[in-house]
Amino acid sequence: MNELLGGHIPSSTAPDSSARDIDMNILLSAVLALSDECIKILDLDGRLLFMSQGGMGVMEVEDFSTMKNCFWPDFWSGEANTAAREAVATAAAGGNARFTGAANTAKGNPRFWDVRVQALAGTDGRPTHLLAISRDISGEHSAKAENARLLEEEKRAAQREAEMLRHLLLDAPSFMCLLEGPEHIFKIANNAFVQLVGHRDLLGLSVRQAVPEVAEQGLYKLLDRVYSSGQPFIGRGVNMSIQRVPGGLFESVYLNFVYQPIFDDHGRVSGIFVDGSDVTDLKNAEIALHRKELQLELALEAAEMGVWECTVVDGHFVDIKEDERAMRLLNRRPDEDLHFDGFASRVHPEDRLALSESAERAL
C-alpha cells in the first residue's frame, strides 16, 4: 500500500518531532479501517487491486481475494456501468471523475453510491494507478426518491383535480369564461357560453374579435374598467342584443353576470373570470306578469271596481288590504280600523247574507 501511494509523506504534511515515533503504515491502516467510505486502488485498466478494511465492511466483502483483479466497472450495471467505464478512462488520462449509481454489495444487498475517481501519479508525474472512493448514499437516495414519488403523486392528484374542475366548468349550467390580459383573450369558455354566442370560435381571440356585436353595448368599457381597477362588476338583468349565429338576426337577451378580476403572484390583474346566467325567460315572464297587472289595473279603473283582499288564519280573516277604489266605494275613512266586520257593515243590507255565505265557503 505504501508503495502504491508513492512511499513517502509530502513535507507539508510530515509530522513534527513529537510524532516521529508513529509508524505511518500503522496510521494509514487505522485511518482506512475507520473510514466508512469504500476506498479502492485500481490499475490504469480499471482492475481492482486493493480495498480498504472499512470499505470491505461497507461492501460486505468477507474475502477480498475473490474480487481482486476483477474489472471494477463490472460491479455496476446499466447507466452506472457506462459511468464507471468513463470514469476509469478519464482518471487514467490524468483527470478527475465523479458519478452516482446503484451497485449491490458482495452479499447482493442493493446500495446507491457517490463515487469519485482520480489518478495516482508516480515520481515522473504520470498516472500509475487510480484511486476510487465510494460513499454509501442509499439513505439520501431513498429519501430523494420518496420525495420525488410524493411530488409526482401530488402532481398527478393536482392534474386530476384540475381536470375534474375543468369538466365541471365546461358542463356547468351557468355560462363561464376566462379572459386573459388587457385585450381580454379567451382562454377558456364553457359549453353554456359557447351556446350563448352561437357556437362560434372563441379560444385565442379577443372579445372584440370574437363577439364584435357587443361593441356598442358598453361591455368592452366594463371589462377595461374591471381590469384597470381590480374591482369586480355585478350585472343583474342586463339587456343585450347578440347574434346566436354569426351574421344572423340579433336577439334580445337578459343576463345576470359578474366580472371577477384575477390577480397574479405580484397582486396585478392578469385576467377576468366571467360567470353568469341567461335569465331571458324569467325576465320575459316578469314583463308579461307586469303587463297583465297593468291591464287588470286599467280594467278595474275603467269599471270603477275596487279590490279588497285578506289572509285566512285559523278561520279568521286577517291582514286585510284594499286599494284606494275599494276604500272610496265603501266610503271608509283612512283613520278607521280595517277589519272584516267593518267591511261587511258597508255592504248593502240585501247583499250581506250572500257575502256571509261566500265568506263561509271561502273559509
Structure characterization notes:
- The chain has 363 residues and is α+β, with helices and mostly antiparallel strands.
- The chain has helices at residues 24-34, 53-58, 79-92, 138-171, 191-196, 207-210, 219-229, 280-303, 324-329, 340-345, 349-362, and strands at residues 38-42, 48-51, 96-104, 110-121, 127-136, 175-180, 185-189, 233-243, 250-263, 269-278, 308-313, 316-322.
- The longest helix is centred in the middle third of the chain and has 34 residues, at 138-171.
Distance between the termini: 117 Å
Number of helices: 11
How do the strands line up in the largest sheet? Answer: 2-1-5-4-3
Helicity level = 25-40%
Structural class: alpha+beta
* Mean pLDDT across all amino acids: 83
Which geometry do the CA atoms define?
Answer: elongated
Weakly predicted, low-confidence segments:
1-14
Spatial extent as radius of gyration: 46 Å
DSSP E strands, number: 12
* N-to-C series of helices and strands: HEEHHEEEHEEHHHEEEHEEHHH
Beta-strand proportion: 25-35%
Largest sheet: 5 strands, antiparallel
Kindly summarize this structure in a few lines.
This protein has 363 residues and is an alpha+beta fold. It has eleven helices and twelve strands.
Q: What features would you highlight for this structure?
A:
363 residues, 11 helices, alpha+beta, disordered N terminus, 37% helix, 5-stranded antiparallel sheet, elongated
